[in-house]
Specification:
By secondary structure, the chain is mainly alpha-helical. The protein has two domains: 214 residues, Citrate Synthase, domain 1 (Orthogonal Bundle); 103 residues, Cytochrome P450-Terp, domain 2 (Cytochrome p450-Terp, domain 2), CATH 1.10.230. The protein contains 16 helices and three strands. Helix 14 packs antiparallel against helix 15. The longest helix has 26 residues. The model has no long low-confidence stretch (mean pLDDT 96). The structure holds s-citryldethia Coenzyme A. S-citryldethia Coenzyme A binds next to loops.
Length: 383
């Protein structure tokens, strides 16, 4: 009997592989919910610390719970000397995601609880990962900027401490709040490629550290977390707003992908991009002429892409498009954008790993084999 051809879902497009209560991405209506709360409310009323608590514990904390959680996070910001040595030795090679991955793997060999898979240990490691990843990224950026190493402060918020460690001076409240919002907006997004990579590793019962390293590897790619850096590079390449139309037309004619646009799930405006765009208005009122220029180009490119590919092809701005001008305004070097994306996404990764382990199933999909079988083996002397 003729075998029925296998039904192949390339890129696992449209395939549901598990249940989850962590976030809902509504791609048709352009809505995003963390544990049931709309992302607009999270960005407006919450903080990165409170968002981490919500994602990890599944509910909003009471004031005293948030205070002790924030203290526990701050207590974990310090880095061992050997991590600092590694960062300073590898700095200056423009391979920030590789340094991040190496530093995290080294940290996993150092943590006494790495192999302890108990829920308590996994929660403690999640808090450690959230704090230490941020310190590592700030230290990588600071070394790249030639600012030396600024030890973390336990008296600052998570976002304030990141900017303090990066620049060696305390940030102004407006910029700290802007970064806090960016961290919340990047904290979680259902089964995106890097979260899925974490779960493939976790499903073998590997440990949370090395499962996160798998996520960092996936996030690096320009089709995923690497898009923010490439989108900003495009804006700088366009150079001034008057060149925008011609540049975009030529790129599309050459079948180039415009970084920061399109999404596997959102077929309308990414709600996070809409919120980030609000920060651009603050930038346009600033005195930073360079960032104002790239912001004007971004706003022109947005309008053009929506007219050309939005309504007709469902290709709209995503979270990565406006992030570049905001990070540049915050003094964050572009090579640090994707590592910062990792430092933002870590609560989402940890929440998914711990949730998946509650009903673990090894992730092992099938391939549709299209090669030959039954070939006669010919010895090397007879070939
Ligand atoms: C993130 O999944 C998540 O949730 C990810 C994320 C998260 O928070 O974790 O939201 C973060 O990764 C956002 C996406 C960042 N990546 C980019 O901005 C890179 C540029 N975007 C594209 O590479 C693309 O849109 C993807 C990869 C994001 C999604 O692509 P799909 O769903 O696999 O669709 P596809 O690549 O097959 O594109 C379908 C068509 C193609 O045209 P045809 O070959 O059919 O003629 O749309 C075109 C594509 O060429 N297209 C684009 C485009 N994106 C898709 N054309 C021009 N510019 C683009 N940006």
């Amino acid at each position: 009997m003729e075998e029925k051809p296998n039904e192949v879902h390339y890129g696992l497009e449209g395939v549901y592989f598990t249940d989850s209560k962590i976030s809902k991405v509504d791609g048709i209506n352009g809505r995003l919910y963390y544990r049931g709360y709309a992302i607009e409310d999270i960005a407006k009323y919450s903080s990165f610390e409170e968002t981490c608590y919500l994602l990890l514990y599944g509910r909003l904390p009471k004031k005293e719970e948030l205070d002790s959680f924030s203290k526990a996070m701050a207590a974990e910001r310090d880095l061992p000397d050997f991590i600092m040595d590694m960062i300073s030795k590898l700095s200056g090679r423009e391979k920030q995601m590789h340094i991040l991955s190496a530093a995290l793997s080294a940290l996993s060999a150092f943590d006494p609880e790495t192999e302890d898979q108990s829920p308590g240990a996994n929660m403690r490691k999640s808090i450690r990962l959230i704090s230490k990843l941020s310190s590592i990224v700030a230290a990588i950026g600071s070394a790249a900027l030639g600012n030396g190493y600024t030890k973390p402060s336990k008296d600052l918020s998570h976002a304030e401490n990141f900017l303090y460690m990066l620049a060696g001076k305390k940030p102004d409240a407006g910029k700290a709040r802007m970064l806090d919002k960016m961290l919340m907006l990047h904290a979680e997004h259902s089964s995106n490629a890097s979260t899925f990579a974490c779960l493939v590793s976790a499903s073998t019962l590997s440990d949370i550290y090395l499962s996160v390293v798998a996520g960092i590897s996936a996030l690096k790619g320009p089709l995923h977390g690497g898009a923010d850096e490439n989108a900003l590079a495009m804006l700088h390449e366009i150079g001034n707003p008057g060149n925008t139309e011609e540049y975009i037309e030529q790129a599309l004619a050459g079948k180039k992908k415009i970084m920061g646009f399109g999404h596997r799930v959102y077929k309308t405006y990414d709600p996070r991009a809409r919120i980030i765009k609000e920060s651009l208005m603050e930038i346009m009122n600033s005195s930073d002429e360079d960032v104002k220029n790239v912001t004007s180009i971004a706003l022109r490119a947005e309008k053009l892409m929506i007219d050309k590919l939005g309504k007709t092809h469902g290709i709209w701005p995503n979270v990565d498009f406006f992030s570049g001008p905001v990070y540049e305004y915050l003094g964050i070097p572009s090579g640090l954008f994707t590592p910062l994306f990792a430092a933002s996404r870590i609560p989402g990764w940890c929440a998914h790993i711990m949730e998946y382990w509650q009903n673990n199933k090894l992730l092992r999909p099938l391939e549709n084999y299209t090669g030959e079988i039954g070939l006669k083996f010919v010895k090397i002397e007879d070939r």
